[in-house]
Amino acid sequence: MKLILTTDVSGLGGPGDAVEVKDGYGRNYLLPKGYAIVATKGAEKQVQVIRRAQEASRIRDLDHAKEVKGALTALGSVPLAAKAASNSGKLFGSITTADIVAAVKAAGGPVLDKRAIDLAGHIKTVGKHSVNVRLHPDVTAAFTVEVNAAG
């Protein structure tokens, strides 16, 4: 079965790659999860759109990764407002990687990929929490997210 990947698939390839996989793997895993689309002539145009979107958000090289790391450390503590219980400091729900990406962008920081963010555990309390971001295989940035009670 010939497919075009829409996201990174470990051991198979990256977005926009045309791959040949066994029928069952494609039908039962890649297609239902949205990791790939069937390779057709119209899909080739979609591949170009996928690649352009990936290029816009990708860290280009080691120097660019170091530049983004400098921008993240210059931010200091990134504020993030979340709904919390009044006295206990516990959040209703938890902070996701998408929330962290939005908070960094709102604080004037660089646009990050939510899949590159490593959290030590779920953030479910108000306070300061350490967050790591894998920018490049050789560069990892660490910054602090300060969760404040809102509402």
UniProtKB/TrEMBL annotation:
Gene3D superfamilies in alphabetical order: Ribosomal protein L9, C-terminal domain, Ribosomal protein L9, N-terminal domain
PROSITE patterns, sorted: RIBOSOMAL_L9
Gene Ontology biological-process entries: translation
The keyword RNA-binding is annotated on this UniProt entry: yes
Gene Ontology MF terms in the entry: rRNA binding; structural constituent of ribosome
Family: Belongs to the bacterial ribosomal protein bL9 family.
Protein name: Large ribosomal subunit protein bL9
Organism of origin: Actinokineospora alba
Phylogenetic lineage: Bacteria, Bacillati, Actinomycetota, Actinomycetes, Pseudonocardiales
Gene name of this polypeptide: rplI
